[in-house]
Amino acid sequence: MIGRLNHVAIVVPDLAAAADLYRRTLGARVSDPVDLPEHGVTTVFVELPNTKVELLHPLGPDSPIAKFLAGNAAGAIHHLCYEVEDILAARDRLKADGLRVLGDGEPRIGAHGKPVLFLHPKDLCGTLVEIEQA
Ligand code: CO
Questions:
Q1: Active-site option among 54, 83, 130, 132
Q2: Domain of 36?
Q3: pTM of this prediction?
Q4: pLDDT recorded at residue 48
Q5: Which of 8, 30, 37, 87 shows a CA-CA span of 20 to 30 A to 115?
Q6: CATH number for the domain including 115?
């Protein structure tokens, strides 16, 4: 059911330093920072040949990643995002297998303008997983 790995998201304490690390040291193609106020993050997109890395930093007082950063001061992997063809069909199948969908269970529009859902990390090997309708 899941398809391509769309991105790996990494929460970082210093977005400029992390962007510089990926651009200069690792030699990747790196975007300018993009504020996504509706998601409470500023993100830098790192384009790799086969997937993306998203560097995330909290934006605003109610950022959903503020606590995560507080507990991971050096930064850490936050979630993986897998592509699915039909997000409602994927959701229903996962729920039928006992996986917990976060929030109200309805897809929201994610950082790429496409519908996404997040799945409880305790049901997926300790990893927060985002599914995105590609
Ligand atoms: Co994501």
A1: 130
A2: 5-133
A3: 0.94
A4: 98
A5: 30
A6: 3.10.180.10
**Distance between Cα 54 and ligand 1 center (Å):** 7
pLDDT band at residue 79 using 50, 70 and 90 as cut-offs: very high
SS3 75: coil
Element (DSSP H or E) covering residue 82: strand 76-84
Count of domains for the chain = 1
Tell me, in angstroms, the distance from the centre of ligand 1 to residue 9's CA: 6
CA distances from 2 to 14, 19, 66, 131 (A): 32, 29, 29, 8
Q: Give me ligand 1 centre to Cα 97, in Å.
A: 23
Distance 8 CA to ligand 1 centre (A): 7
Instruction: Confirm whether 132 is a catalytic residue.
Output: no
Distance CA(89)–CA(44), nearest Å, equals 30
67, containing H or E segment: helix 66-71
